[in-house]
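Dear colleagues,

As part of the handover before I leave the project, I'm documenting each prediction I ran so the next person doesn't have to rerun anything. This entry is a single chain, and its sequence is reproduced below.
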Amino acid sequence: MAICNTDTVGDSELVFIAAKFTSLKKLCIKNCPISDTGVKSVGEGCPSLVKLKVKRCRGVTKASVCTAFLHNSCDAQLSPSREMSRPTKANIVIDMEDVDKDDEMGIDATEAKTSRKKRSVVWKEFEIITNSGDMKARCNHYKHNLAYKKGGATTHLKRHLKLCTPRKATLVGKDKGPKQSLLSFDVTEGDEMLSIFKYDKGKVREELVKMFVVHEYPFRMVEHEFFTKFCRSLNPKYEPIKRQTLKLDCMKMYISEKESLKLALAGINKISLTSDLWTSNQSIGYMCLTGHFMDSEWKLQKRILNFCPLEPPHTGLAIADSISECLIDWGIEDKISTITLDNASSNDLAVRALKENFEAKEKLHFGGKIFLVRCCAHILNLMVQDGLTEIRDVIENIRESVKYLKLSPSRLYKFNEIVKSLKLSTSKRLILDVPTRWNSTYAMLECALENKSVFSRYKERDYNYKWLPSDEDWKRAAEVSKFLEVINDVTKVFSGRKYPTSNLFLRQIWKVRKMLNDMSTDNRDFVKRMTLKMKEKFDKYWGECNLVMAIGAVLDPRYKMKLILYSFPKIYPADDFQRHIDDVRESLEFLYKEYLSVDSQINSSMSSATYDSNPSQAKKQKTDDFDEWVITNSDIIPGNKSEIDMYLDEGVYKPGNEEYEDFDALNWWKANSLKFRHLSKMARDILSIPITTVASESAFSAGGRVLDQYRSSLKPETVQALICMGDWLRQDFGVELASNVENECMQEG
């Protein structure tokens, strides 16, 4: 009996067949909705059954068929030929083709193939379903049913995959399949060029590091929700990163940038150093070491080389050892020409140790004459501080008045209302000075003098106000403010952001000395006391000639020796100024000969090569009438005259009035480098020597911002990477941060 491809035969029909046809010997059931229950009823009701064939019946398992036809009274086993032994002598052959296979695949019996599996690639993205009795192919992406016939073609399915929009979006997300390119405008040297944009995750992270380092943003900002939203609004493909990842990226870039800077310094002949110490809010001492040099374009450059922790005690030997380690690490230990430090006693010992090391290696440049440069800004600050300590009582009423008004918002409001009623043309507000900062005292006096008439009117409205300055107090304050204005102007030159060349400082020192000389003739007691104290400090540090400032002034074509001859008699005593003038000229000759000796071998080899290749040039030329006329009617420069003699014998250079203040001595020497081949090399090295430690001290402001109260747990190596790399990138990209040092205690907006 055979029952095939019918939905009307189920388990109940098999029970009826088993009861009706008890003598049935062979039964074939194919593609019918039967289960193990129906097969069991056939096995029990048809004892004569010798062959049972079950094909594509999903509800039937091989285990149930075996159980139905194997009784406990017999130890029958399934043979390799898939035959089963029965208690009778007959053999029952059970054909369970595709039953287990369909169970494992989990597909409907109506969908299963009997001979081979589907090989078309479309079936990786389609599945076969039965919908209302009809077979359909469903797209896994679009969830759309397409017509399908067993054994039919799949061309229409492939065509659907090519046009399927959800499938394309999936493939683009996986960086596979077709993509639509984005167009962008690439601006190169002012020209806009249309290019294809491609999102570069590595480039985005690189620019992110530069942004955080240059602008000193905290690492935690990269995890802020709205920072991520902002970046995704610019590019939806932006992938957020953790602050630990950003930190690691910073350290990797620091190592890369450091290697690049090492290669650049390898081509520099002489490097000047500035150094200073600073203590963070973690009570960790840091030493900042900054290198100053001239690049190939004759541009003055400075780079922070190290911002490293310094273990206490901060002795001179400890400072010298730390500097030496830094120089060796950078490979510039043989290129150091000068070092600029403040006047701390430990620095003197450090310089002595460094000088001995360089002398032992015969690498002490300029004969050690200008190896140590005292910080002029620091000396000027000490001088003014000493002078102000002598006149604290002169400005006491003004200071107490400002303090009284600043302590109460209501008092300050009344004061400002009076300013408005008088219609004073001033935008400056009251500033209370800091005793350790003389520039804050100047700012306080300047603002108070502009609001002089307001204090007396305020007294009429506040009977508790007891520190109204007298007319004599205002006169004294005006004299002190006038003096501090000159010092302030000089300090701006010393502490300029662009770190001016050394040729500018001698004229500023002469201005200070001239002012002190003029004030020393004043008969008022407070002026005499202040002047005497400041002159003592001036003579202590500038009593001996500062060769760097003096030689730098000589190498300014606007001054040459003229400024030396004019200013030295006013700076030094009458019986001593000539000695200083002679020292400057001798040192100038000594340094020039050192540069000349370095180039002597190169010059001699070039001359020898020229003579060998052109022997005819060595022959003496005969003179004619014209040559004799030139000799008798012109001034002839001797052939043995040095470049320095030629330079000094020429007149001073006089730029126009508009160009005078912006005159760049380095540009002049660059333009005349062919005329003064040796002297120009000397000028570029001398003019690049820093006179102040402002370059290193400015890093401490950055250190205070990096190591604020919220980031005090940063490790010293991380701090060094942030400070150094921030300085390098700002120099490369020409970015300037607003300096709190310059604006502190000054005018409020």
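Residues 71-93, 97-115, 739-749 have pLDDT under 50 and may be disordered. DSSP finds 30 helices and 15 strands in the chain.

All the best with the project,
I.
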